[in-house]
Amino acid sequence: MSTSTISISNHNTTKYIHGYTTDEQDRLIKQSNFLEPYIYSNVDFSNCHHIIEVGCGVGAQIQLLLNRWPHLKITGVDISQAQIHRASEFLKPYIEAGRVSLYVSHDGELPLPDECFDGALICFVLEHAHNPLNVLKQIKRVMKSGSSLYCTEAFNAGVHTYPTCLAFQTYWEIFNRYQKELKGDPDVGLKLSNLALKAGFSEVNANCVPIYLDDRVKDTSRRINLIDWFIEAILSVAPALIAQDKITPYLIEEMKQELSWLKHNQDTVFVYPFQQIKAVK
Ligand SMILES: C[S@@+](CC[C@H](N)C(=O)[O-])C[C@H]1O[C@@H](n2cnc3c(N)ncnc32)[C@H](O)[C@@H]1O
């Protein structure tokens, strides 16, 4: 591990719905590239010098941020040693150049001094956190007064398909119930503004970032990529659900067939509405 990577807590026993396999870590890198146009259309760190990403995973967003704003220094924090280890390999040249530093933290407690960052990012993390309000309070503590936080989160209850996909609906219900069992919140996106206000942020602006597939999308490869991204994301939880007898492999096969069919049917409507806020300290 690089000397720029400091381990604050060696272990955490928190169960993370997607797990920390190499395949899952690769998926995060692939996903960040695919979702970049959606997530970053309203994000601007051009006036910042040193920003923090909480829940940085394997560093996929950090790489995108550095490509977009090459002058930035970025600190990444995650509760998982395995993620930070992978991130330290993935971002090695940037770490060696002194532009990236990585830390392992525990449950949102940031091992960093007050008011040292002039921007902050959270992306698909609060849905997994046991105490999302505390994560927001912690990130606010380390932000400078007047700086902005961008936070993008899931709102899984907002996912819709037309025609209705029954096997998918069954899987999705079990998936979301499992996330709640792990003390996460698959609909935290809907609560982002309220949570940010409770954490003490002001000027909270919210918008929906909808991934929308309907007949306006004529490009077949775009249709295929979109559904394939979604299938890959939700299937990352399938091995855990099968191992716990919550679903059968047969349900997975049925669901794959239903969702694959959506790619090639021009009547399809598929909506995945992320929620994003910008909030000022
Ligand atoms: C879906 S990944 C997103 C990673 C990265 N933000 C991205 O978009 O590629 C969620 C990450 O949040 C981390 N995580 C979960 N709860 C956390 C918490 N309370 N504080 C910090 N990280 C957390 C997980 O270990 C995982 O790496």
Q: Helical content, roughly?
A: 40-55%
Structural class: alpha/beta
CATH-level-4 superfamily name: Vaccinia Virus protein VP39
CATH architecture: 3-Layer(aba) Sandwich
Mean pLDDT: 93
Low-pLDDT ranges: 1-13
- Could you tell me which ligands this complex binds, including any ions or cofactors? S-adenosylmethionine
How many H/I helical runs?
A: 10
Q: Would you count the extended β strands for me?
A: 9
Could you name the CATH topology?
A: Rossmann fold
CATH class: Alpha Beta
The biggest beta sheet, please? Answer: 9 strands, mixed
Describe, in plain words, how this protein is organized in 3D.
The chain has 281 residues and is α/β, with parallel strands linked by helices. The protein has a single domain, classed as Rossmann fold (3-Layer(aba) Sandwich), CATH 3.40.50.150. Helices cover 40% and strands 23% of the residues. The chain is built from 10 helices and 9 strands. Strands 1, 2, 3, 4, 5, 6, 7, 8 and 9 form a 9-stranded mixed β-sheet that branches. Strand 5 (117-123), helix 5 (132-142) and strand 6 form a beta-alpha-beta unit. The protein is globular and about 50 Å long. It starts with a strand and ends with a strand. The model is unreliable at 1-13 (pLDDT under 50). It binds S-adenosylmethionine (SAM).
